[in-house]
Protein: Amino acid adenylation domain-containing protein
Amino acid sequence: MDRGKQMLKDNAQKKNQPGLVGNEISMLQRWRQKQEVHALGQIPRQTQTEALPLSFAQERIWFLQQMEPASTVYHLPIAYRLVGALNVSLLEESLAVLEQRHAALRTCYTEVNGQPVQRISAQQRRPLSLIDLQELRGNSDFPQHLKAVLAADYQIPFDLERGPLFRATLYKLQEQEHMLLLTLHHLITDGWSNGLLMEDLGALYTALATGQALPPAPEGLQFVDLACWERARWQRGEMDEALAYWKRQLATAPALLQLPLDAPRPAVRSNRGAVYNFQLADETVAKLRALCRAEHVTSVMALLAVFLVFLARYTAQEDLLVGLPVWNRQRKQAENVLGLFVNTLAIRISLAHQPDFRTLLERVRVATLEAYQHQEYPFEKLVEQLRPERTTSHTPLFQVMLSVDAGADEQLSWPGLILLPENVERVGAQVDLTLEITEHHQAQNGFDGFTCAFVYATDLFTPATIERMIGHFSQLLQACVAQPDTKIARLPILSQRELQQMTVDWNATQVIYQDSHFLPRLFEKQVERTPHEIALTYKQAVMTYCQLDERANQLANFLMARGVTSETLVGISVERSLEMVIGLLGILKAGAAYLPLDPYYPPQRLEYMLKDAQVPMLLTQSHLAERFAAMTMPLVCLDEDWQRIARFSQELPAISGSPEQLAYVIYTSGSTGKPKGVMNTHRGVCNRLLWMQDHYQLTGQDRVLQKTPFSFDVSVWEFFWPLITGARLVMAEPERHKDTAYLVEIIKSAAITTLHFVPSMLQLMLDEPGLEECFSLRRVICSGEALSPLVQTRFYQRSQAQLSNLYGPTEAAIDVSYWECQRGDQSKTVAIGFPLANTRLYVLDHLGQPVPIGVPGELHIGGVQVARGYLNKPEQTAEKFIPDPFSVEPTARLYKTGDIARYRADGALEYLGRMDHQVKIRGLRIELEEIEMVLMQHPAVREAVAITRELAPGDTRLVAYLIPTSSPMNQGDSLDVEEIQRYLSARLPDYMVPRTFMILESLPLSPNGKFDRQRLPQIMEETPSQPRAYVPPSNDIERTIAEIWGEILHLQQISIESNFFELGGHSLLVTQMRSKLRERLHVELSIMEAFRFTTIQTLARHVSQSSRSAAWSVQNIRERAARQRQAFKRKHP
Structure:
């Protein structure tokens, strides 16, 4: 927000709001005149120079600097290249006079009795250092070296207590060329003040260089006068009307903007940041200005509206808050005062009801004009009054800002000199993301447009992500100004190149398989190739390909004789056995489709599925027949009735078989509580199997373990992939697929090379002794749940096999994407990867439009594997199976998975969870998977699950279920929950730390080995919905802290479980608390720790258990800052 002389004059003329037009200027002028009349003669001058109060804005920045003492995010650099004959002595004298005239340049800040105060020195040293770089001028890398030197200079820490908070360095580049770098701390300046400073410095240098009298020193107010006056007005209640406005405006506002991040949000936010610069196209600028004139809005309003559209498209949120800095110099007395006047407005805009851009512009115009009228209410006091959820992980109220500036002259002129502005590379970010836009109007170099920058937190975003954001913002801006009557949700955010990449290039999966797409034919061809090889084993029984084919043919001919024909749905309910495989093949060979029914399902569920599917016949086993005695359809027992079946021909049934025929129906859990039958065709399942063979290349030497219950679709490839490729199918014993010891045993004894696990079951398997001795194992395929990086890492620690992560719903023939896990991969997530052959994957928003890379959306599936739909449920089929707008085939459809995913830059997909599992607590979205991952990184935790439970209306709580490890650290004792909480608090935002824990022996699993969330035990404790009951202090430390809190919060009684900030605590009171803790308990509590340990109980425990590290003491921070200053001086003498 740096401005020069012309900018200052322009803004003074425009009454502090550059670009306002018509009625807006008139309204703000009347309001400002009213304020000036009201304030005339009422701002007293301060006579003392010691222990003066800070302004509210200064308090906030002082406090934030204390939170991160070494941070330079509040350093404001001003750099100019001086070309011509410079008189260094006159420049030095000009700086000395400048310092004497502006008290802010002689101000430093200290703490008295827990209160920050400012002190004005009579005169400090002349702040000019001269560094000669002429010897390096000829080097080819000198420009980069100079840029690095400037960045390092401005990052040298200031000593707030000793000052000065203003320094000047002059770099001599050659005889007629210098670089002047002025660095000021934000406590004493803002962008407007920097413009004043350069104007005054130029006037002083000009007078000295030309022999003229120095311009008269301003006799008006100093900033400290206005700071004291601001406090007096606030204490008198003169700002109460503005407070009422902001309370109405921000009531029930969302706590956090859910921008998609490249890394988990850290528990403690740092100010580390970077800047990415860009420029708006001339054509876009012309259209933007024309639209502003037509709609009577300023460029600030228009760009804010575009920024809101951008944020909405990235977050899918409609209720948005953006920080908007304003100069806050409404009164004429403040226009020439150097100091920190800038205030930040929390602009809240609703994008509900899908407005067009023109309508949104009007909403923004009204909201910003109202906010301008109430702009002097200090943001810092607003945060105290609103008491938002306080956390060290993000800033309160808003996490993004827009800064729009009227540009200064591109160059300044002093006697014998031309001053060219130089950009200094900044490395700090005050919020997650700031869009800085500077508007230039026919500057001296002829540029007339906008220069822009994204200032971003490097803890959260990568440069590649920011580069994409710039492209998307620019794309939306072009669309907004060109199509203002278009609904904002329909404005294009992707370029044509991106759209082509995401919809076409990344889905270029077409493969023509020469094999049949009718499943029995694939098996029969393999029978012809290897008739006498073993196809199937179960316990001690074996069957060759020829034997299996003959028995399946007999069953098929038997079924056809009983009236089974093409697409007849035949039920089968058997235990894992030879009969199971014969039954499935026989049904398919008859041209029918099979419906697998787990015999151990509850009778009511079995009855529902049989009736819903209208099954005319059920295949079972004699010992299971009693379960279906009440059913009316015919039963065929594959064991007891085999003699009848064996009378039928072993020859191939005379059916043609079509790829579009139904192959099987598998029931999945429904959102209504009723399961839905998914109809899959031969084309879909054959494509899936042929891709798998093409990718993994099974041979006759492979052994595939079939252990998944056949009512789950993974079983389909377990059955048929080995049988169409000449491998051997090994059947696990019934109900032993969750017995890890048995699985290790059968892998060894049967020389299994290939098997499947859901991640929950793999987690258990990795704890089983002997796994590393399963030398035959070549590949393990995971699907069905999200695979965590921790499980991936543990797998490669215990096995030499290859781990693959597949993804797919039952509605798309088992799996539709694949990812080959890599040993040593350090990624935060395990991708679900890329689409299979002849499959297309799209990540779309709620309107069916592709979303940008990195932005979450609903995963949609297209291609040959998409199922027909839901059996006998046309409405649900129409809802979930929709026309494919990206296909040239008129009948092509997409399946809406209900899963949230996002693209990586390389086209790989990441699975983010279910849409119906989105969790929020107090308006903050909670990433349960992230909590679980951090929990499982603790050495005493083997497995963890995080959920939310509503204990009472309005009382939703995070609950963590933990399975302890058997490590020596644990030694069989129960986990130390308090230690686990401390561990989490150091790694996660406070709102993501569970307060309730339950220790379990194991996690409940479903029949196919998936984690069963519904079977987690209920919380045993009762939590009332009323406010917390009073819990008294139990030791001396708690009593001392309670006394301190009572004094600073003015409360008689405080429960040790009450939250400091919920009781009315705020940043300034944190400072007082630290001072009193230092005095009474002799502990040095950092501000970050005060925000992390927010109850008397947790703070007392921290004080008593944690040794204070010298690295965080105030004295050490000062010493480190001094060392950094000395090191820089040695490097640049």
Summary: The chain is about 35% helix and 20% strand. Residues 789 and 828 are 7 Å apart (CA to CA). The longest helix spans residues 191-210.
